[in-house]
């Protein structure tokens, strides 16, 4: 009666084939098949979660689902399945409003009986950034979005892990006319998810007293190094856009000289 070969995640043994005159029995056949089965298992495990796709995720006008759209997926390996999703983009199914208000949601792909399916979840991605924290090996992370105070997704667009809000600056103001002359923290957690460590920000520095150039500084922490220097003309304004590392709480720091004020807007983040 045939027996199954138990494959092992390994690439160690030379593949051996019987030659003329060798006994044809289970042992002689298995000695060749076993290392091939092991190598197949190693390759399958190594490709788990492998994703080839457009990298595009956006929140826009609601169609028949949540208004959350995922670009085409050429190939996704989950378990023993290789999944794909054709078409320009697919809207994630569901109904609004979502239960989580002013909350971060993850978008995940999973294997639904051999078909690629999409879901949104309040469960965060895992530390690798590959899987859903509560679905390691089964739910592949694609991206994130945030809901407003009514549970509706906020307009944004992402390409290959670079996110941009599609809202007016007033809706993503992390600091308005700040005047701290010593390093002060700016909370940005409402504008970037908990795993974000690099913010895309724009600044407006205004010199208020006509006493000289306006000067501002930006950093990651209040006790760390100055990472960006800002300057505006006397009685004038200056704008700047830059990427800035943030803390694990999605905060950055700023300071200005005594006759300046700074406004800061979070344009997006990078994964």
Structural description of this entry:
The structure is a single chain. This protein is mainly beta and 271 residues long. It is 8% helix and 44% strand. The chain has one helix at 26-46, and strands at residues 51-53, 56-59, 68-70, 73-78, 81-85, 90-91, 104-112, 115-121, 131-132, 135-146, 156-159, 162-165, 173-178, 184-187, 198-207, 214-219, 226-232, 237-245, 251-256, 260-270. Strands 2, 3, 6, 11, 12, 13, 15, 18 and 20 form a 9-stranded antiparallel β-sheet that branches. Strands 8-7-10-9 form a 4-stranded antiparallel β-sheet, with no helix packed on it. A 4-stranded antiparallel β-sheet has the order 14-19-16-17, with no helix packed on it.
Q: In brief, what are we looking at here?
A:
This protein is mostly beta strands and 271 residues long. 8% of the residues lie in helices and 44% in strands. Strands 2, 3, 6, 11, 12, 13, 15, 18 and 20 form a 9-stranded antiparallel beta sheet that branches. A 4-stranded antiparallel beta sheet has the order 8-7-10-9, with no helix packed on it.
